[in-house]
Design a protein that fits this description.
Cro/C1-type_HTH, Lambda_DNA-bd_dom_sf, mainly alpha, Helix-turn-helix protein, DNA binding, elongated, 5 helices
Amino acid sequence: MSHLRWKSLRERQLVEGYTEPGDIVEARREFRLSMALAQAVCDRRTELGLTQTELGERVGLTQAKISRIEGSGTVPTLPLLAKLAAALDATLDADDTHVSFTTHHTDAA
């Protein structure tokens, strides 16, 4: 099926009041959350000026594993998320559609 044909089918379904099954809706939500996590890890790592290898060393992972996390190829476990947050000197904040790392502020004064 060509993209144009798929798009018109999808538009027709939306106009006709089509709703996706719950498992599809949940899978899409999980995928969006996984993508948001990947972007948050990449953004925070870049903000700190770290390479994937350097972040991997801080967490105890290989560069390839960090790459898979940042590419949404894998979803980290809760213990690994805690290690990532600590390595990124931040706290992980998440809701149904958004993930971010909040920097730990230290006052030098």
